[in-house]
Amino acid sequence: MAAAGGAGRGGGSHVGARCPPRSAPPPAPVWRGRRAAPNRHPLFPQYNYQAEVAENQPAGTAVVAVAAQDPDGGEAGRLVYSMDALMNSRSRELFSIDPRAGLITTTQALDRESMEYSLVVEANDQGREPGPRSATVKVYITVLDENDNTPQFSEKRYIVQVREDIRPHTEILRVTATDLDKDNNALVHYNIISGNSRGQFSIDSVTGEIQVVAPLDFEVEREYALRIRAQDAGRPPLSNNTGMASIQVVDINDHAPIFVSTPFQISVLENAPLGHSVIHIQAVDADYGENARLEYKLTGVSADTPFVVNSATGWITVSGPLDRESVEHYFFGVEARDHGSPSLSASASVTITVMDVNDNRPEFTQKEYFIRLNEDAAVGTSVLSVTAIDRDVNSAITYQITGGNTRNRFSISTQGGPLPHPGCRGPAARFGWGRAPNREIPEGLGMVGGELCCMRAFCKGG
Question: Dihedrals φ, ψ of 50, to 5°?
Fold first, then answer.
């Protein structure tokens, strides 16, 4: 082999060059023998690669191309690209690389919500001496968000119990929805879309805080079913209208009992048996549960009051003997009290009038009457007035002679009269003289209503 610029000698070849000026060192000799220069490593021009790809793009979408440089020529400088075998298996499934061009593409549609990806790409040359050389580089792929997720509520149904006396502008519940998207696509706003027809609730559009803004009344509405919408700020926005908030109003004892009708007035016969139902005392309470369960009791009564009330039903019954002639009217009170805490009550008056039955016999004001009568008394002469009384009401007393009136010597007027008040005397019954025997008139006994009256009459001679 000849050297440029001159003939060479010996077994090896050395390539020389013309001598340069003294000021410069001579060039290094170049050997052109059978041994080739050592195979050098390929190099990537940058430390790592960062790329972005939109989610939901079809398989085969180009992401980024990597390129290494190899100073060698021929096969030693021809590079082949591949994924590092130790790389995350999921990443190996989602991406592929062209072994010659170094172009990384997707193998399927990507989901930004899953993760960001880190790849390790290896470049191998095809050198033989002393063997293939390689270099690696990291590739970071960020999946760009697309607004493809609707907000999701943390609970299918929110349930809260609220006292009906809660103050307005008090927070009672906070709903939460999350969106797997990013940035504005994940920014959620809330609003109530149904169930708030009375306008008693408000919701903070940003925080999801629900407040009571108007008074609640258990007796008007016991439960509210609010439907909540969660909507993101994407373009176009996506919303979820399935949020439900059940607001259960808890009753408080804010209503006192009310009697159905007052005052309570009734009449009862004086011979009513024990346990006889006289009158039903009824009150109502607009509250609920124990707050509406009522208990009744009598007030203003004494130990001998012949009436009691059933504390649960409100029925007043006879508990002792009645006697109109002793007590005609009973006046007392009744109280209805609920079982709330604190309890509330109402009062009413009760008047019971005892009605008369004919349970008293007439009684004569005297058991015996003594008279003396001239034997020449004219027929029709008024001899005696007898009087009987009856303690019952509207008792008309009649009189008759039941015995001892031999030969009908005497007559008696039959009509008495009504007794306007117990113990009042009725009109007197007058005995009349019929005939005058010249002897003592036999004693006569009369039974009127079971009472005995004895009249002894003596005739005097002229």
Answer: -125, 130
